[in-house]
Specification:
Elements (H helix, E strand, L loop, with lengths): L2 E4 L4 E7 L3 E6 L4 E6 L1 H11 L7 H13 L4 E9 L2 E8 L5 E8 L2 H42 L14 H7 L2 H6 L6 H4 L10 H44 L10
Antiparallel strand pairs: 1-2, 2-3, 3-4, 4-7, 5-6, 6-7
């Protein structure tokens, strides 16, 4: 569940905990993420609280609570620098801090965490609205039928439901989508999201490319080494073949 991290400017935090801690933050324009193992999160907490002595399990529990309930934090500072987002938070009632750095997430992550859930909410609300409209129209018809048989209703402050007026007032769906239904191909779509830190993934790719290029560099330099060896050999041969000079004796 998304939880408000900061009100102005607005940032929201999502914490998924499976095999690792997946921290996601968004302003609904950009999304940032970071993964921590249990040991990595403990180390991050220890580095954020130099000199603090606390049992590791207790430290982890408190750190998890800070991420789980950001509304109860004493202080939050969010800084954006390029594709990196940094968050510094301080716990309320206890001198515990946590500083984390997140990298900008992919378009697939934004779709999975923001776009698709929002469209599912729209679809759910639209279905609910349609069901309630039908119920109100049915109730009004039942009341009119009751009156036609001589039934009397002493008092009602609610006017009959005016569906046209209601739809003119609440028209954002029709303005954006018209009469079209939200396609199931989007609502049920599965996207491939890499479950690793973007920065670590990029560094891994760069390392692999560097390792692959290294033998090519050695092959390129091999002829130069051979030429150098030949030159040295030739110089030695020339030196050995030079005749010794005769010195004149002064008698």
């Amino acid at each position: 569940m998304w939880k408000e991290l900061q009100n102005s400017p607005a940032y929201f935090l999502l914490l998924d905990r499976e095999q690792r801690y997946h921290i996601v933050i968004t302003d609904y324009i950009t999304i940032w993420e970071v993964y921590y193992t249990e040991d990595e999160l403990i180390n991050r907490l220890m580095e954020s609280n130099i000199g603090l002595e606390m049992d590791k399990s207790e430290l982890l529990d408190k750190g998890y609570k800070m991420l789980q309930k950001p509304s109860e934090l004493k202080k939050i500072k969010v800084t954006v620098d390029g594709q990196k987002l940094s968050v510094s938070m301080t716990m309320l009632g206890f001198p515990l801090k946590l500083s984390i750095s997140l990298e900008e997430g992919s378009r697939e992550l934004f779709f999975q965490k923001i776009t698709q859930p929002a469209m599912k909410i729209i679809q759910d609300l639209r279905s609910s609205q349609l069901e309630l409209r039908k119920m109100l129209i049915t109730k009004d018809d039942e009341i009119e039928e009751y009156k036609s048989f001589g039934g009397k209703i002493r008092y009602t402050a609610i006017a009959p439901f005016n569906e046209n007026a209601h739809m003119e007032k609440h028209c954002m769906y029709s303005v954006n989508f018209g009469d079209a239904e939200l396609p199931l191909s989007i609502l049920d779509r599965k996207v491939d999201v890499h479950h690793e830190n973007p920065k670590i993934k990029q560094e891994t790719i760069e390392t692999q490319v560097s390792v692959k290029l290294e033998p090519v560099s050695q092959q390129t330099n091999a002829p130069n080494l051979a030429n150098l060896t030949n030159i040295v050999k030739k110089e030695i041969i020339k030196t050995e073949l030079l005749p010794a000079r005769k010195r004149k004796l002064n008698l």
